[in-house]
């Protein structure tokens, strides 16, 4: 069974293919809604369609504005510079270590020497790797 996902406009084609390799069925915001769509519209579409939202926009890591319990899942990829190659490396490391169906929200921070992964699971504590 494929995990339905919605890739924000800042997620390039090759990271979307990598996600598909790991069992996601990825739709693109650009294809569905066009470019320049406000964040709240993107989040609402993901929530209504029970899709994991995948973005490079750190606003989606704000648990108060986008509470994890309201979404199937949120994956925020934070790499600098925001390139497809760096996104692929971050996603590869992240996806190879997790059981995907239980993820509700996560945030990948690669600013540190050793990247830290923040994972919030439904009704459980935050786990730091």
Structure, explained:
The protein has 129 residues and is α/β, with parallel strands linked by helices. The protein has a single domain (3-128), classed as 3-Layer(aba) Sandwich (Rossmann fold), CATH 3.40.50. It has helices spanning 13-21, 29-33, 39-48, 84-95, and strands at 3-7, 24-28, 52-55, 73-78, 103-109, 116-121, 126-128. Strand 1 (3-7), helix 1 and strand 2 form a beta-alpha-beta unit. The radius of gyration is 13 Å and the shape is globular.
Task: Summarize, please.
The chain is an alpha/beta fold and 129 residues long.
Blueprint (SSEs and pairs):
Elements: E1 3-7, H1 13-21, E2 24-28, H2 29-33, H3 39-48, E3 52-55, E4 73-78, H4 84-95, E5 103-109, E6 116-121, E7 126-128
Parallel strand pairs: 1-2, 1-3, 3-4, 4-5
Antiparallel strand pairs: 5-6, 6-7
